[in-house]
Structure formats: C-alpha cells, structure tokens
Amino acid sequence: METIKISRATLEDIPTLTRVMEKTFRAEADMLLGKDTTDSDSNILPPGFDSVSANEYMWRELDYYKVSQNQELIGGIIVTITGRQYGRIDRIFINPEYQGAGIGSYAMKHVEALYPNVRLWDLETSARQLSNHHFYEKLGFKRVFETEEEISYVKRIGDVDGTHLVKVNQQLSNSSFEQSDLNNTSFYQSTLSQVAFSNSSLFQAHFTNCNMEQTRFQNINLRSTLFADLNISGSTFNQVTASNLQIENTDLTGTAITNCTVKDVSIEGESLTGLSINGISVEELLKVYQNTK
C-alpha cells in the first residue's frame, strides 16, 4: 500500500471531499439501486452526501477526517464522540478507484486509535450493502439489530469490568433524583421513556442518535443551542422566542407560520414554490416586482 495519511480535514478540503463522497455513494447506488430508481435508501444515499454546505456542517460540528494518498484526497471518515466513552461512525467513504486495497480498514483502525477512551463504537448500514457487512464484521463489529432495510452494528473495546464505572442492566425505573450531581454522565442504549427533568441544569448536554418522539420542552432556556440532523416533522412551536434564529439547509415543505412576528426576517437563495403570505403567492409577487423594475 502506498503512503496513506489520515488527518483532520480543513474547510478548504470540503469541496473536494464532497465530490469524493458523492462519487463513492452514487457508485454504490448505481450498483444496488439502479440509475433510474426512485428508491431512497438513506444509508446508501445519506442526507447531504452531495452538498458542500452539509459537509461544512459536519466538518464544523463533528470530527471529520480526510484520507489522502500521496497528497491526493481519496476519502474521508466522519465520527461523533458522545461523552467520554461512546463513538459513532457517521460516514466512511473511499473513492471507488482506490477500494479493495485495505485503505478503509486502515482508516477505521487509525481513527479508533485516536480515541483510546472510547470503549464502544456503533454504526448503521443498509441491509443491501453486503460488502459493508463483511467489512465491518472483519473489523470486529457485531450485529445488534436488523430490519429488512437496515443493520445496526456495535464494537466493544475491552471488557465491561468496572474500570470505566460502567453500570450495565441497571433497573432504575420510577426512581427520583433530587439535588443530585450527574455531571459527565453518559447513557447508551438506555430506556428513558417518560423521563422528566425539572428545575435542572442540562448545560452543554449532548443528545445524538436518540428517539425523542413526542417529547415536550416547556419553559426551557435553549439559547445558542444547536439543532441539526433532526426529524421534527409534525412538531409544534408555540410561544417561542427565536430572535436571531438561523435556519440553514432545512426542508420546510408544508410548514405553517401563524400569528408570528417576522420583522427583519430574510429568505435568500431558496425554492419559494407554493410559498404564500396571507394567501398571496410570493412567486407571483416576485414576478410583478421583476416586471416593474
């Protein structure tokens, strides 16, 4: 194998890495889904795989590494580190022209070594990606859940022996904690349905890959909070202060904004098809404006 280097991606690398990611995932989709298919498998063609802005978000908020061979960018690996001990492989992609030479395995092992405190890694892949199943299982990942569409893998580093103060299979249902110090506590594959937090500090809490369907947030300070890579379809925002809110790369199809103050709000570079204000088509308003200029 020629000299392979794994290092942190820079912002200047993102356009090239986006092209490599798109090439990699489209080649996989062409092989498994067909070029003319309308099938949308989000593991084969993940959201934002061909978007520079989406990759800039991942570079900014996640741990984004580039894979280079003789100074040529040939792939990348993106991970999320939650707490001290949990890591997630969000994406790994190697230019199809360079696959089959062990580069992906080298990149995975190298990134694992960068986080010696992480004792558990997880990831998901499409049930159709048989080559991925072999690849991950060869690296020590075990299947923990699978459906007809998706397979979830976990890799544990070392034994659960108390060294990391890990509590496994604890039954704490119906417990109450008052004036308790839970700083730096991590929850993994834990059931927290109907959990309630009141008059508590969740400063810099990190929620990732969690099901929070039908969760209620009321009388909460969420200033300067990041909401990204979420599905909030059907959700309701009522009595919310959102001054200086930034909404980027977001699908708002079918959204209704009612009785809201939109002073100084700007909409730029977006598709306005079907957008109306007080029943008036914005597209038609813009056409009239352009014709009168």
From TrEMBL:
Does the UniProt entry include the keyword Transferase?
A: yes
Q: Check the record and name the Pfam families matching this protein.
A: Acetyltransf_1 (PF00583), Pentapeptide_4 (PF13599)
**PROSITE patterns the record matches:** GNAT (PS51186)
**What residue ranges are annotated as transmembrane?**
none
Q: Tell me the keywords, alphabetical order.
A: Transferase
Task: Give the domain of life.
Answer: Bacteria
- Protein name, please? GNAT family N-acetyltransferase
